[in-house]
Every structure is written in C-alpha cells, then in structure tokens.
Specification:
- It is a single chain.
- By secondary structure, the chain is an alpha/beta fold.
- The termini are far apart.
- Helices cover 39% and strands 17% of the residues.
- It is globular.
- It folds into three domains: 53 residues, Orthogonal Bundle (3-methyladenine DNA Glycosylase II, Chain A, domain 3); 248 residues, Alpha-Beta Barrel (TIM Barrel), CATH 3.20.20.20; 126 residues, 3-Layer(aba) Sandwich (Rossmann fold).
Length: 451
C-alpha cells in the first residue's frame, strides 16, 4: 500500500527549513506522496528514512533511457492521466520496422527512408528517431552487422528477434547506443534477463495479457532487470488502447509497481493510408511510450510528429521565439518592417508568408509571453505601449532608413495611438498572415514609392 503524506511526514526531519523548495516538511511530504519530487530534495533526511521512503519516492512509471549518447531518448516517468492536470514530459518515440533478411541493398534503402523522415516546424526539429530491426532469419552475424549500420546513422534501435543469441550478438556491438531488446516472454525470460544484464540494454516484455506482463516484470525485477518497456500482446486499435489505459491507470492511481513502466504499441498498415496516422495518433495520446509502424510515408510521419509536438508541448508554456529583430531573407535599409508576437506558430507563419512574397523584410517580435496576436491583444500584452517599446528598444531604427511599420490587421484600432507613442508611420496590414504577400507587393510598394 502506498504511504500517505502523513506517513511520509513522520519520517522527515520536521525542521521546516524550506531548503527543499517547500515551506514546510508537511508540504514536502504531500509532494512526495504524489510522486512530484524526489526524497533527495531534502538535505537533512536520514539514510534510514531514505531507505524507508525509496518506494514512496520512486516515480509511479519508471524512466527508461535508450538510444545513442548524442540522441538519448527518455520514456516514462509520467505523473498524470490528463495533460491539463500538470503536463506530459517524455514524448513517445516513433519507430519504423525494418526487415533484416540478409538481402543486399534492402537495409540501406530502408534506413535512408527513415533518415528522411525529419522536418522543421515552428523552429523545432521533428524526426522519427528509431528503427526497429526485425530478424527474419538473417543469422547472428548479419543481424549484428545491420545493427551496427543503423547505429552509425545515429538512430536509436529496437532489436527484434525470437533468438536471444541473435539479440546478444547484435547488442554486444552497439551497447553504447542502448538498443531496446525485444522481447522477454514467459518462455525465455531467464535467458533474456541474462542478455539484458550482460549488455546493459533495456528490455521489452511481451505477455499474453496484462496479468502475464505483470508476472514477468516481477520475475525480471527479482533478477535485477528493471529498465523495462511493456508490450501487453494486444494488437489492433481498441484492445491496445484498453491495455495502454489500464497500464497507466494502475501505475498512477493504484501504484501497481509490476506495471509501472513505459508501454509500447504496434501499428498495422490498415486498409487505408490514413489508418496508421489515426491509430498512431490515438496511441500517442493514450498512452504509448513507443509506437512501432510497419512503414511510414513522409506525409504520415509529418502528421504524427505534429500531433506529438502538440500533445507534448506544455500548455502553460507555449513555444516561443526570441523577442527582438529577426530577418526574413536579406533585408536592407529600405525593407519593410513587420510587427508580430513571439508565439512560435504565429512567427513562423508570418515568416513563411513573408518569404512567399520574395520581398526581404525585418520582423520586430514583441514579447507577449508566447501568446498569439489576438490572444495577446485581448490580454493587453500586444498593445500600443508594448509595440512602441519594442520599436524603440529593439534597435530596428538603426537598421532602416524609413520609419514605417506594419501591424496585423486584427489590431488596427491601436494604429493611431501607436503612431503618437512611437513617431513611426503605422500601416495596417492584412488580418490573416496569408494576405502578407499581396500586401507587400501592392500597398507596401506604393507607400515606399511615394516617399
């Protein structure tokens, strides 16, 4: 049974020193009981109390690390069922299955295709991080060579084989890249425990159902193997979702340690090309730590990566760009000056539409704490005063020979006051960013030609 906050409080030093970041020891105990802090945050707790509280302080879902040193992937350690309760921290990894059958050329082509599943969106690099190498009778040497080739591409790996000897041979050559070994079952768990301990690699556990998985994780933990990822054995959308939900619920709400690990899901091709996107999106939302696809086209990967980015962005901390002056193209002293907010999606939309005009421009980005134009305007963070201050402090006046700035059409009402405060001529641009190319090619060119 999980310790209550009062149980934990009795084991703390009760100094109320606040050095842990909380005003009292009781407040700290409450945070420990909900798994939101670690016992190490208390500088005065005794070693005996640490030992007693080890279980209470451990996260309900273990953090498992895999992948090469410069592209480590962390899965698990989630603390809530719903993002609005706090946030989600560790995005699920996406993997594409690659058959390793010893056929020449096929492996390189498949790995090339995975390497190309990388995109930039709102200033962040999105990519499919993993290749799931599936042994189709290639043999230990060929499978180990395939693992080495994939590791050289900085891809994190899932090594899949029914033969523990094949997995051990492959993992031995790339153990620093911490591949996931798939999988321990009721038939081979003892041998697989030995392979995981020898190589230091995390281990997938595949059961026939959740009871079977829980039994296996307890046996493996007894052997000292605790970096585990769970495969309930479910295939198909409804059953997999049900198992993923049960794993998260039991781990968080019941502190059921045998299922307190990240879980994985497999996505079949489906009858329609959109099916892998729909199923994969569902698993990303609830609650897979690793999703393996049989194949992915670029458009499918982009949709899934965008979904993941949206779900795993802290809703209380929107993605932001640095306030100040940004260049779009190679602007000069006569180039237009556009004003926008530092909400990342807003800025990169404006940037893309401005680039489409083929007119190099300056962008003065106002600090609105990551809010979009209309949201920031409604919150009084994108107003005449803040824009005038940005025009004055950003240094844009030293970069251009004119004093004309373009503001979004949605805040046209502030143009008069902004002119008074800033002494700049204010042009009201289009309400939607998509209208920027036409605006710059017509209205801006007319104003610039008349002066």
């Amino acid at each position: 049974m999980a310790l209550t906050a009062l149980d934990i409080y009795k084991l703390l030093p009760k100094t109320n020193c606040a050095e842990c970041g909380f005003p009292t020891c009781l407040a700290f105990a409450m945070q420990l009981a909900t798994k939101k802090v670690a016992i190490d945050a208390c500088p005065y707790v005794s070693e005996e109390a640490k030992a007693s509280l080890a279980g209470a302080a451990a996260p309900p879902i273990r953090l498992v690390t895999l992948g090469p040193p410069d592209r480590r992937i962390q899965l698990g350690k989630e603390t809530v069922l719903f993002r609005h309760e706090e946030t989600f921290y560790h995005p699920p990894a996406l993997a594409v299955r690659v058959s390793v059958d010893g056929a020449p050329g096929g492996l390189e082509a498949a790995l090339d295709a995975i390497d190309k599943l990388a995109f930039e969106r709102v200033g962040q690099q999105l990519r499919v991080e993993m290749a799931a190498l599936d042994d189709r009778g290639a043999g230990p040497e060929a499978f180990a060579a395939a693992a080495s080739a994939a590791t050289g591409r900085k891809l994190a790996l899932v090594l899949m084989s029914d033969d523990p000897k094949v997995l051990e041979a492959a993992a031995a050559g790339c153990r620093e890249a911490k591949p996931l070994l798939y999988a321990a079952t009721a038939e081979n768990w003892e041998v697989m425990a030995g392979v995981a301990k020898t190589t230091g690699c995390p281990l997938a556990v595949r059961g026939k159902d959740l009871d079977d998985v829980a039994d296996l994780t307890q046996k493996l933990a007894g052997q000292g193997v605790t970096d585990l990822i769970l495969d309930s054995g479910a295939r198909g959308l409804s059953r997999t979702l049900a198992d993923l939900f049960q794993i998260r619920m039991l781990a968080l709400k019941k502190t059921f340690r045998p299922l307190g690990y990240p879980a994985m899901a497999f996505v079949a091709p489906g009858e329609h090309p959109i099916d892998p996107v729909l199923h994969g999106s569902a698993f990303i939302c609830k609650y897979a730590g690793l999703v393996i696809f049989d194949s992915l086209e670029a458009w499918q990967a982009m949709a899934l990566l965008t979904m993941r980015q949206n779900i795993y962005t802290d809703p209380q901390k929107p993605i932001q760009v640095e306030p100040g002056v940004h260049t779009i193209g190679a602007p000069d002293a006569n180039s237009p000056v556009l004003v926008t907010t530092n909400f990342s999606l807003t800025y990169f939309t404006v940037e893309g539409d401005t680039e489409a005009s083929r007119i190099p421009s300056w962008a003065v980005v106002v600090d609105t704490e990551g809010q979009s134009v209309m949201t920031a305007w409604a919150a009084d963070k994108f107003n005449a005063e803040t824009i005038a201050r940005a025009l004055e402090t950003s240094g844009i006046a030293e970069r251009v020979a004119h004093r004309r700035a373009i503001i979004p059409g949605g805040v046209a009402a502030i143009s008069g006051k902004l002119e008074e405060l800033s002494s700049w001529e204010i042009l009201v641009g289009p309400r939607e960013s998509a209208g920027i190319p036409q605006f710059l090619r017509t209205r801006w060119q007319q104003v610039a030609a008349s002066n």
